[in-house]
Amino acid sequence: MADVSARHLGIPALFILLAGSFMLQQPAPAPAPAAAAPLARYTLVQQVEYPLGVAKADNPPGLALCPDGTLYAGIRGSSLRAFDAAGKLLLTDSTISLPRYPECYACDAQRRLYTLERKLSIFEPTADGKLKPVSSSSMRAVLKRVLITPDGNIYGLSLDPKERLSLVTIGKDGKILHSFGDQASVRSTGFANRVGILVWDAADKRIVYDAPGGLDLRFFDVNGKELSLKTITKTDRAPGAVPRLEASPALYNLAGLPNGQLVAEEITNSDKFDKFYTNLRVYDASLNAVSELIATNKAGALIGATEDGSLYFLRTQAGGKISVVRASLQPVVKK
Q1: What are 177-219's pLDDT values in tens digits?
Q2: Three-state SS for 25?
Q3: Rounded to a whole number, what is the largest CA-CA distance in the chain?
Q4: Terminal-residue alpha carbon distance, the chain
Q5: What share of the chain is helix, strand, coil (3-state, %, to 5)?
Q6: Would you state the torsion angle of the CA atoms of residues 276, 277, 280, 284, taken in this order, to the nearest 10 degrees?
Q7: Which residues pair with 208 in a beta bridge?
Q8: Residue 147 and residue 150: Cα distance in Å, rounded?
Q9: pTM score > 0.85 for this model?
C-alpha cells in the first residue's frame, strides 16, 4: 500500500486530503423548520339564554358555575337561584345570606355551593329543590377570587391589610392551610382586570393565575409550587402569547377548556372608530395563539367554561336586566 504520510505528501496535497476528510465527517444539514400551523377560525354559537332578573350596576350578581353546567346566581336583596345546563330553573332560596362581593361564590363537582366572605359556608342541593347547609366556619381572609378544583381543594386570592396579594389553600373548616405566590397589589387602570383571574387547567393539573392590575400570568401546581413557562414580554402582544395586563390590557378574563387550551377574553381597540371591542382567542397550554380573534356576538362577559367545553357569559341589557348565555365554539372551514 502506498505511504500517504505527511512526510511523502506535499503541503497542498496534505491540505486537500484533510479537507476532504473533514467534509466527509460533517453532519447532514438540519431539516428546515416546519411552517407554523395556520390559526383556526371559530364562530361563537349561542345555545341557551336564561334570565336572572334585574341588578343595579353597583350590585352585580354572584355566580358559581359547576363543572356539569349547573349555575348558581345570587343577587343581594333578592334570592339565590340555580339552573341546570339547559337553563331549567332548579331551585329558588331566599333564606341564604348572600355575600356582598360577587367573586365570593364557587361550586364543586358535586354541585355544592360555597360562599366565602369572612366565613366559609357550604350548601348542597336536596331532592326537594332546596339548599341544605353542610357547614359554616369563620375565615380570617378577605378573598377576591375563589377556585374549587375537581378533587375538592379550595383556593382563594387573598388581599391582606398591607395590600399584598397571595394565593391561599383553604380547609373545609375555613382555616388557611398554605399561602403562596405573594406579590404587592397593583392598582388597576383602564380596562385592567380588577379582581384577578384564577382558573383550573384540568389537562395539566395546574392553577392559572393573574393578579388584579396587570401582572403576568403565573402557573402553580396543587401544592403551590410555581411552574416555569416561557417569559412573556411586551413584544409578545399578539399573536403568540397571552399579553401582560397593563394600563390598557388586552386580557380581560380567561377560561380553561377540557383539552388544556385556554380561551382568553381580550379587549381589542379599533383605531378607525376609537372604540374597544371584546373578542375571544384560543391559546394552547404554552400560551401560543391557535385561533384568530372570535367575535362574541354580544354574548356578554365571559364567566367560565364547563367540562364539556361550553362557554358561559353574563349578558347585561337595558334597564339592568341580566341573563346568562351558554355558547360553544364552532370551527369555520376556510375557503
Answers
A1: 999 988 766 555 444 566 788 999 988 999 998 877 554 778 8
A2: helix
A3: 105
A4: 69
A5: 5, 45, 50
A6: -20
A7: 199, 219
A8: 10
A9: no
